[in-house]
Amino acid sequence: MASLSPIAQLQFVSTTVLQQALDLVENILTSDEQLTIQSKFLPGSTIGKHLRHARDHFILLIECVSGPTPYILSYDTRSRNTPMESNLSEAREAFQDVISRIEEVVPTASLDLPLTLNAVTPFMQSFETTFGRELWFAGLHAVHHWSMVRVIAGELDIKLQDDFGFAPSTLVYKGSEALLGKAKI
Fold first, then answer.
1. Which range of residues forms the domain containing residue 36?
2. What is the Cα–Cα distance from 129 to 54, expressed in whole angstroms?
């Protein structure tokens, strides 16, 4: 993996993290209801909401850099209560779509492509950033949400892969044989 270009490395991490969610909805979850059961430990949280929220960050980024310049990104313009939050088939299609879009857009992009990120913090903020930084963020942000999915799955007695919801740096530190644990720091 070290021989991959930096953009290819970020694409690999992004698609690997998204593939974990695709595997979850294709092979681990067995009913639509599992997407919508409210967590006892994370009030208002469901597996479906966390999956949709994390996927949205990738979609918003890809749509931003696929549009006209100047590239202005906002992660706050997400759709909520979408079909993928409550339907395994819709979730599967949503993850297949975002993986395809990443595979199409990322190889032609530059890590240094300038973006303006607008964010409500709750105050309106504007930051200069790059495509590479935001692609890295989307992957780590997804891992953060997969860790919450892990908590909810545990409440439902659903067993997940050992690497699901762990940051690549943690997997590397532990010497994990998982895909995201094989890189060397």
1. 6-181
2. 19
Give which of 11, 15, 17, 5 is closest to 168, Cα–Cα.
17
**83-113: per-residue pLDDT in tens?**
999 999 999 999 999 999 999 999 999 999 9
Task: Give the integer Cα–Cα distance in Å for 29 and 160.
Answer: 10
CATH code, domain with 124: 1.20.120.450
Q: What is the pLDDT of residues 100-154, one digit of tens each?
A: 999 999 999 999 999 999 999 889 999 999 999 999 999 999 999 999 999 999 9
Q: Evaluate whether residue 65 is within a structural domain.
A: yes
Whole-prediction pTM value? 0.92
Asked if residue 1 is part of any domain, the answer here is: no
More confident of the two residues 132 and 180: 132
DSSP 102-157: HHHHGGGS-TT-EEEEEEESSSEEEEEEEHHHHHHHHHHHHHHHHHHHHHHHHHTT
- Cα 138 from chain centroid? 6
For the chain, the domain total comes to 1
